[in-house]
Amino acid sequence: MASNHQPNFIRQERILVSSAIPSATLDLFALPRRPAPTNSSSQRVRILETLLKKSLQDQVEVVNNTCYFLNEPPKKLAGGFEERLGFTQALNLSSGRSTLNIQTKLTTFYPDIALLDFIHIQIGSKRIPNENEFKKLNRILKNCLVVTRQSNWKQAYEIDQFDQRRPTEITIESGETLVEYYKNAKNITLNQTNYPCIQVYLPSIIQITN
Fold it and tell me: What is the pLDDT of residues 50-82, one digit of tens each?
């Protein structure tokens, strides 16, 4: 997930497709310069946009309408964050010729690691955070996605905030604590029960990939 921990840095460029995207060989400036009927021009733009997306579908991942190359390792930042270079593209018609506008972006991402490991990186040691550190973590992790895995089933939740209660202190409708519920109903033994829980909710739209 993209982080709001650091601002994005945007640089706008107008360049040939072949110099920005290695797999694309279309030279847009080789298209006819004579103005074409509006309907024909719009269809041409849609066709080119489809070809561009097809040529990149196995090389990029789209996050918030920005493409990021999968084969480029991210730059490691302080606090466990990662920085990736991405781009947005827009194909336009102007003066009878097609123009591809590219905006490159440096975006800070949250790493794909265990939540507890990320917390330890943030506070600088493997221990339970104190009150001030929990306030900091609430700001950093607000609205981030956390994925739980049970056998072959994965479920994503959006983080709201930390709950100061431990799993042994929270009971459900059956009267069981969270520790007892997971053990009895799911045959899962919770560890790290000395850490507090987090309040989460199901996001309205979510896509999980392997």
Answer: 777 677 777 788 777 788 887 788 888 888 888
Domain of 185: which CATH number?
2.170.260.10
- pTM for the model: 0.61
The residue among 65, 81, 109 that closes a domain is 109
Of 109, 130, 157, the domain-final residue: 109
Range of the domain at 34: 9-109
Q: Are strands 97-109 and 82-94 parallel, antiparallel or unpaired?
A: antiparallel
- For 15-59, how does the pLDDT look when each residue is reduced to its tens digit (9 = 90+)? 223 233 333 333 334 334 444 445 566 676 677 767 776 777 777
Nearest Cα neighbor of 198 from 158, 171, 168, 151 is 158
